[in-house]
Amino acid sequence: MGAEPRECLPERPARGRRVNWAEWAPLILLTLAALAGGVLWLAGRRGAADLVWAAVTLVALLPATWAVLRQLWHRQFGVDVIAVLALAGALAVREYLAGAVIAVMVATGRSLESYAQARATRDLRALLERAPRQARRRTAAGAIEVVPLDRVAAGDRLVVGPGDVVPVDGTVEEPATLDESVVTGESQLVSRAAGEPVASGVVNAGAGFGLRATRSAAESTYAGIVRLAEEATARKAPMVRMADRYAAAFVPFTLVLAGLAWLLSGQFVRAVAVLVVATPCPLLLATPIAIVSGLSRVARRGVLVRDGGSLELLGRARTLMMDKTGTLTAGRPRAAETVVAPGGDRDEVLRLAASVEQLSPHVLAAALVRQARVQGLTLGEPTEVTEEPGRGVRGRVDGRLVRVGQLGGELPDWAERARRRAELAGRSVVWVSGDDHPLGAILLEDPVRADARRTVRRLREAGLTRLVMVTGDRARTAEQVARAVGVDDVVAQCSPQEKASRVRAESARAVTLMVGDGVNDAPALAEAHVGVAMGATGATASADVADAVLTVDRLDRLADAVEIARYARRIAVQSATVGMGLAVVAMVVAAAGGLPPVAGAFLQEGIDVLVILNALRALGGGLRRRDVPPATRELLDRYAGEHAPVRDVLARLRDTADLVATRPQSPECVPAVREVHRRLVDEVLPHETAEERQLYPALAGPLGSEEATSTMSRGHVEIAALVDRVGGHLAEHADGRLRPDEVPDLLAALYGLDAVLRLHLAQEEEDYFSLNPADGDGNAR
After folding, report:
1. DSSP string across 201-229
2. Is the distance from CB of 452 to CB of 483 less than 8 angstroms?
3. Rounded CA gap, 715 and 700, in Å?
């Protein structure tokens, strides 16, 4: 795969950024001319010096005057007029040095603005520059051809060489190592197994691999991101010209103050001095620098905001409305539990179901196959597969008839208990049957995102005061998710029109965000002040109407974006307020005759540099979350991976507790309890001990203190105590029979252990494992 000529690779930009001398040329030339005038003045040739400074002033005055006239022609009135009056006034009173300083000041501000915007928007431009334009496609004969990207269609087999940008969304045909930093904002390399989905825009950081396209280039994730980047760099933020909104008050105030200074003193030079220090560079320059810096930072965190106006609103938001499916939950079903008929084998039931479902495109089928592969089960080759819409799939696996789907008729007792359990937990049931009787049931759930509750807490800390979940799902399921994540209100069974209406009503009361991922969320996103789409899921309809898109499938990046937006807005307002406050003080002093034009010009230059440097602070800071060191990330990955076998022990524990509860005198009870106790001692307790000694101390830094893990440590103590309690009961049973008097306490220990351990795992996944940015999907419960 690596033998193709390198010129066929998609174009990649050179590293680094060349200096754009055009940005700095006016400043350099005007500064050199002003310095030349200073040399002439020191040499005693003051007439020549004044001539040079006057020329510098005139060179700055002419384009500034033209810009103001164009604004007036378009019926726009801004504070730029003050700079024009200051330059003209300096020429009128022959304060040529002051005029030259003002000219250099204006050029300095423009150059700094251009540089800061280029620095802040380079992440957005990088998205555009690195967009692939070609792809390598396999022909029917097995050859490889290089084709334009717009000729790639869903189903095409592509080859992605080392270092290439993945051109379209697809699934990898063999294991791949990817750099997803441009799309997700994270620098860690990610490994994808064969059959896993890959988003366009990520970079192949390993050997070449095959890719089966699932979308065309125009419909792929990266194309949507590029479209948003183009809009973000092309559209102008309302706050960029915030000065113009205050022009109606500030310009008359300046002119009146300058007129009064001239009238009361009889000295026109005082009016010029007022105009010189009134030049509103803090508003013209500092505000856009801070806002565009914020746009750059949220882009690096995996959130692409359309423009500065949307970022400003994001920083002012007080209400957040969220869809449930795909936003607070993973958006795809997961096999949470397998219940089998008495004497059945849980792994075998799941293997049979997944084997039959391999050829089905249904989303539930994908969940079964995915879970079987996670558990390392070997799937059989199904034959005679048929699918009845609404009923399920049937086929033969290893010569055995297997049906997966709905189950008709009266249910056996164990199946009825499984159905009720699923209903109470808000789960759906897929039944697995043999020739004439059900073999088991697989309970499916749409798990809450592991980072959802932590994100909700961070959003509250960032200033959002009302959080509402709106969903089309059933009220019972919606309320369970709402309690799990901690929102203020829940609105269930909402149609898309009702969602939009609720968002409209909330938007009338406060600046409102709406987060969603599906096509049905598009109307609600359009109604919100800021619509945020979960773009990583490929919901192009919602992304097209959104003001911001999460390019990585992590809800916590929304909290990052809100915190950055608030910080950038605070820096912008702070820079403008302090700068203009200092300018007003200087204007009063100049009107009183205490500040001549030359000194005022130098003072205003200092104020401009001060506020611009302050605005550049928006390029960093503002985030509450602490970064997780690489060594701690490795520990998080390791212990998150160990939760799968712990959950398998949990499933056996629950089955054993049910057996003791329903058939306490069965000879199977004590052996089942002994087996689950052995696994608890051999598998679960060592896992808990290792976490206590290695993981929890490592989390003290990211969490702020060692006390942050004290509650979870207490959970370890309770788990160990309950395991010992079960062991104590077993020690009294040499004959292998349970006594009726001890069944209640044994059941309390077993069910208590099941509840405590499940809660403990969920808390770890929410509070600890969600800290790891490399865990894209999170360890959802």
Report:
1. T-EE-SS-EEEEESS-TTTSHHHHHHHHH
2. no
3. 17
CA separation for the pair 47, 149 (Å, rounded): 65
Could you name the CATH architecture of 334-445? 3-Layer(aba) Sandwich (3.40)
630 is written with which tokens? Answer: 């690489």
Residue with tokens 């009064």: 260
| Alpha carbons 404 and 365: distance in angstroms, whole number | 9
Which pair of structure tokens corresponds to residue 716? 């370890």
Q: 21-42 and 96-129 helices cross at what angle (nearest 10)?
A: 160
Give the pLDDT confidence of 435-451 residue by residue, as tens digits. 778 899 988 888 888 78
Interatomic CA distance for residues 732 and 746, integer angstroms: 12
Fold for domain 6-15+131-223? 2.70.150
Q: Distance between CA 694 and CA 433 in Å, rounded?
A: 45
pTM above threshold 0.90: no
Strand 189-192 versus strand 428-433 pairing type: unpaired
Q: What is the pLDDT of residue 689?
A: 92
| Residue 475: other Cβ atoms inside 10 A | 12
CA dihedral 432→436→437→443, nearest 10 degrees, is 10
Give me the pLDDT at residue 513, please: 92
**Dihedral Cα 730, 734, 735, 737, nearest 10 deg:** -10
Element (H, E) at 653: helix 643-662
Instruction: Name the CA radius of gyration of the chain, rounded.
Output: 33
> Domain 630-771 belongs to what topology?
Four Helix Bundle (Hemerythrin (Met), subunit A) (1.20.120)
DSSP-derived secondary structure for 140-170: TTS-EEEEEGGG--TT-EEEE-TTPBP-S-E
Tell me the C-alpha distance between 532 and 228, whole Å: 12
| List of residues 6+ apart from 425 with CB closer than 8 A | 443, 445
Q: What is the pLDDT of residues 604-658, one digit of tens each?
A: 778 877 888 888 888 887 777 666 787 888 888 888 888 888 888 888 898 888 8
Segment of 154-158, 278-282, 388-392 carrying the highest mean pLDDT: 154-158
Q: Which two three-digit tokens encode residue 749? A: 């220990």
Cβ-based neighbours of 441, under 8 Å, separated by 6 or more: 338, 339, 340, 415, 418, 419, 422, 429, 430, 431, 432
Do 129 and 13 meet the contact criterion of CB atoms below 8 Å apart?
A: yes
SS3 178: strand
Among residues 50, 156, 169, 323, which one is catalytic?
323
pLDDT of residue 184: 54
Residue 5, pLDDT > 50, answer no
The answer to whether 227 and 218 are in contact (CB under 8 A) is no
β-pairing, 428-433 vs 438-445, is: antiparallel
**Lowest-pLDDT range of 125-139, 230-244, 481-495, 635-649:** 230-244
What is the Cα–Cα distance from 87 to 92, expressed in whole angstroms? 9
Tell me the pLDDT tens digit for each residue of 24-51.
787 788 888 888 888 888 888 888 888 9
Every domain of the chain and the residues it spans: 6-15+131-223, 22-126+233-295+565-619, 334-445, 630-771
Angle at 322 between CA 538 and CA 366, to 5 degrees: 40
Angle, helices 287-300 vs 556-591, to 10°: value is: 170
Kindly give, in sequence order, each residue whose CB lies less than 8 Å from that of residue 245, ignoring residues fewer than 6 positions away. none
Calpha distance 670→278 (Å, rounded): 88
DSSP symbol at 440: E
Above 70 in pLDDT, residue 587? yes
Q: Is 521 one of the catalytic residues?
A: no
Residue found under tokens 């896992």: 687
User: E strands of 534-636, at which residues?
Assistant: 548-550
Q: Give CA–CA dist 105/59, Å, rounded.
A: 13
Of all residues in the chain, what percent carry a pLDDT higher than 90?
10
Strands across the sheet containing 319-322: 303-305, 548-550, 530-533, 512-516, 319-322, 466-470, 489-491
